[in-house]
Design goal:
With 533 residues, the protein is mainly alpha-helical. It has 24 helices and six strands. Strands 3-2-1-4-5-6 form a six-stranded parallel sheet, with helices on both faces. Strand 1, helix 19 and strand 2 form a beta-alpha-beta unit.
């Protein structure tokens, strides 16, 4: 009973803090971290060693990486190869070597320990940076793409870092370890591609055909967990497997529906991760070593930002380089796991791990504040007017969003096509969706009532939204979502009679077509063609 009370109190505290922080336009990550600190320090409950909490935290990052993967297909990864394999490689190598040298020369670490620490500090926080960039939409901005590319390489770099600890502590030939890793990587990609082409797509199609959102969501979770488990089986991180699973589905027409369905679960589980980060902080230890910890944190973040800025400024605008450098200046969550692993293998002592972990966590806490003021900081240093490249998720503009591809939707699509209008269709019924595909319509599988789906189709840039179905409840849900996202949107919907029109009066739908009135007018018009005998 006591644990339930603590659990309820933690949820209440997180909700209250996030409500207050949102009023100040602060990210929810800070609220969860502060809740973790509060529970650990004031209630004296430290739960970061709880296995269930650790798994939930990791699953939050897995879902985040999967949804990021949905935004970037393999084709787009090829386009981003410079960001991933050039900028990412240079950042990890140069930063890792610089910090390793500092660990040896300034703090007297052994060579092996210094290499582990140096490269662990070179990693940035995927969970915090990508979550906030997703929330602000800057994931598609120029600096957001650079940050994403470097973070992806850092995720890949985790594999050799784990190998490095094995090489330093186990009597295993280096050549055999590297060969095994390369073989595992090839097998992992081949297996995932085969599953994606012959199993996953068909499996999801069967799930959609049931017309049950619950079954569809269950199938999506299975795909994510399967990909993550395969990745882990071959020695890679769960999140890397989830990311590539997302990329497999990035070009499917129901990717928007998957993203919309997963968003609440992803954000809540990431909240658990941030809670666990805050819960790890030992305030007593931090305050007793505050000088060393703050000096290290500032030194690491400044040096890291300088290295990233120098690398990017050789190829990109200085403003973009500056924003990317600040966005990635913190130390990532995986560094915590590397420090614990190094401690278990006698590469680091307990005091060093405590100090380094405190530096990591405090840098993560500072990150949302940096990201919030990133544009303002860039404006202070780079006065020249620079339009940053902003890549939209779909690229639609001044278009009509057609909700439903039933008989009315079909006729409207035909009419819009003949008149040269740009339009896109959203359909949640698999048979109608496949029919639209067969007719070469620009159709996406998704629920038009879900805001994430509408945002993905650039609702704010649409010239009109047409709701073609009869169900009053569905019309209300879709219209409300549209009006919340684009208050001045021109909505066209149909109802059977005046009674139904009155039910929807409060929504102030611009064009509400009453079927009985329209039909009566049409039938009256037809009477003029009658002949008298």
């Amino acid at each position: 009973m006591e644990q339930i009370a603590i659990f309820l109190f933690a949820i209440f505290a997180a909700s209250l803090l996030n409500i207050l922080l949102k009023k100040m336009d602060m990210p929810t990550a800070i609220g969860y971290i502060l809740t973790g600190i509060f529970v650990a320090h004031f209630l004296h409950i430290n739960v970061h060693n709880t296995e269930i909490l650790d798994h939930l935290s990791e699953f939050g990052i897995v879902l985040l990486m999967f949804t990021i993967g949905l935004e970037f297909s393999f084709r787009e990864l090829q386009i981003m190869k410079k960001e991933v394999f050039l900028y990412g490689l240079l950042q990890v190598l140069l930063t890792g070597i610089l910090f390793a040298l500092a660990a040896v020369l300034l703090f007297g670490f052994s060579t092996k320990s210094a290499i582990v620490v140096g490269f662990a500090l070179s990693l940035s926080s995927t969970a915090i940076v990508l979550k906030i960039l997703n929330e602000t939409g800057d994931i598609h901005a120029s600096y957001g793409r650079k940050a994403l590319g470097i973070l992806l390489f850092q995720d890949i770099a985790v594999i050799p870092l784990l190998l490095m600890i094995d090489i330093f502590t186990k009597d295993v030939p280096v050549s055999s370890l590297l060969l095994q890793t390369l073989l595992n990587m090839v097998l992992f990609f081949v297996l995932l591609l085969l599953l994606g082409r012959f199993v996953i797509d068909r499996f999801l199609r069967y799930a959609i055909s049931t017309q049950s959102q619950e079954i569809f969501l269950l199938a999506v979770f299975f795909v994510i967990l399967l990909s993550a488990a395969i990745s882990h089986f071959f020695g890679f991180s769960y999140s890397l497997g989830a990311f590539f699973a997302g990329m497999l589905l990035a070009e499917s027409h129901y990717k928007y529906q998957i993203e919309a369905d997963l968003a609440p679960f992803r954000d809540l589980l990431l909240g658990v991760f941030f809670f666990a980060v805050g819960n790890r902080i030992d305030l007593g230890f931090v305050f007793s070593h505050i000088g060393v910890i703050l000096a290290l944190m500032v030194g690491v973040m400044v040096l890291k930002a300088i290295v990233i800025y120098v690398i990017l400024s050789l190829y990109e605008q200085r403003r973009t380089a500056f924003k990317t450098a600040l966005a990635l200046s913190q130390i990532g969550e995986f560094a915590l796991a590397l420090f614990v692993l190094a401690l278990g293998n006698d590469l680091l002592d307990e005091r060093s791990v405590q100090i380094l972990s405190s530096v990591v966590i405090l840098s993560m806490i500072l990150t949302p504040f940096i990201l919030k003021h990133l544009t303002h900081l860039a404006d202070l240093l780079f006065k020249e007017p620079v339009r940053e490249l902003k890549i939209e998720s779909s690229g639609f503009s001044n278009h009509v969003i057609l909700c439903g591809y039933g008989p009315l939707g079909r006729d409207l699509a035909k009419e819009l096509k003949e008149r040269g209008f740009e339009y896109v269709v959203i359909e949640h019924d698999l048979k109608l969706y496949e029919e639209a595909l067969a007719n070469d319509e620009p159709v996406f599988f998704g629920n038009a009532a879900q805001r994430a789906v509408l945002e993905s189709l650039d609702i704010k840039k649409a010239c009109a939204v047409v709701i073609t179905f009869h169900n009053l409840e569905k019309i209300r849900l879709v219209a409300q979502s549209v009006l919340d996202l684009a208050p001045h949107a021109h909505i066209v919907a149909r109802v059977r009679d005046e009674k139904e029109a009155k039910v929807l009066e409060d929504l102030q739908i611009a064009s509400l077509v009453v079927t009985t009135q329209t039909l009566a007018k049409e039938m009256t018009q037809q009477l003029f063609f009658c002949r008298l005998f």
